[in-house]
Amino acid sequence: YGAYMRKVLKSFQTIFLQNENSKQLLTAINVESFVTGDTRFDRVLQNAEKVKNFPLIEGFINKQTTLVVGSCWPEDESIIFPVLNKRTREKIIIAPHEIDESHLVHIEKRLDKKVLRYSNIESVKNINDYEVLLIDNIGILMHLYQYADVAYVGGAFGKGLHNILEPASFGVPVIFGDNYSKFPEAYQFLEAKIGFSISNTETFKEIYDQLLSKDFSGKVTMFMNSQKGATSKIISQIF
Questions:
Q1: pLDDT of 172-189, one tens digit each?
Q2: What CA–CA distance (Å, rounded) separates 65 from 168?
Q3: Residues 9, 18: Cα–Cα separation, whole Å
Q4: Residue 136: phi, psi to the nearest 5?
Q5: Residue 3 has pLDDT above 90, yes or no
Q6: Total Cβ atoms within 10 A of residue 31
């Protein structure tokens, strides 16, 4: 199998790679390659420039510090909800990965807060009275990160980490679980100290408090901008 893969790799005229570690592996078997970086950084930064505004969500936030919880699963919720239930100073937006009724009800029952479903946002009068906005539709999570001061991205206590590039494209530091071994961007975030892995409720509280005590937006934006350009490098090599 190894000999077959070497033959396949050597059949390509050009191989573009995300990082130096991959290049070292190919160099060891005498396969030529170019490190261009990860084109996903270019894509999320371009998408962030096309972000939509949501006046009703802005009314819910009312200029308060905001945590956006994206693509969460019950495993994530059991870790972070005990901390969030004790907080009173921040607004919370939760966009679960699964939005079936049973999961939505499960979230509402576990939160000791006034929860408003997004589908009801137009029908309430005192929107700012609510502490949690529960997103019960799909397709707007990327846009929600523009309102975050801190993001928690789910999946890394289960099948795998969801997209941490999207919140960072808005200059938002990211917290995630400890199952991220298949996600090279998680290692990059940890090294740059714009992403933070947690393993339990205690570490979530510690890091969440840390991120709320300091403005990380400039640091996150600087890192994301430093990763731009993979797409143009590939195009220049091809053409």
A1: 999 999 999 999 999 999
A2: 17
A3: 16
A4: -110, 30
A5: no
A6: 17
Q: How far is CA 57 from CA 13, 128, 226, in A?
A: 50, 9, 31
Tens of pLDDT along 68-93? Answer: 999 999 999 999 999 999 999 999 99
Return the pLDDT at 1: 61
Sign of CA dihedral 182, 188, 189, 190: positive
Q: Measured between alpha carbons, how far is 239 from 142 in angstroms, rounded to an integer? A: 32
In three-state secondary structure terms, 18 is: coil
- Going by the DSSP 8-state scheme, the letter that residue 180 receives in this structure is -
Q: How far apart are CA 28 and CA 196, in angstroms?
A: 33
Q: What is the DSSP letter of 12?
A: -
Alpha carbon distance 178, 198 (integer Å): 6
What are the Cα distances from residue 182, in Å, to 87, 156, 160, 186? Answer: 33, 10, 8, 9
Cα dihedral sign, 177-105-61-167: positive
Asked if residues 97 and 138 have their Cβ atoms less than 8 Å apart, the reply is no
Sequence-ordered list of residues with C-beta below 8 angstroms from that of 68, at least 6 positions apart, any chain: 93, 95, 144, 145, 147, 148, 150, 151, 152, 167, 172
Phi, psi of 38 (to 5 degrees): -105, 115
Q: Which residues pair with 152 in a beta bridge?
A: 69, 175
Read off the pLDDT of residues 117-126 as tens digits, 9 standing for 90 and up.
999 999 999 9
Tokens representing residue 196 in the block: 């933070």
Beta strand ranges found along 105-144 (DSSP E): 115-117, 132-134
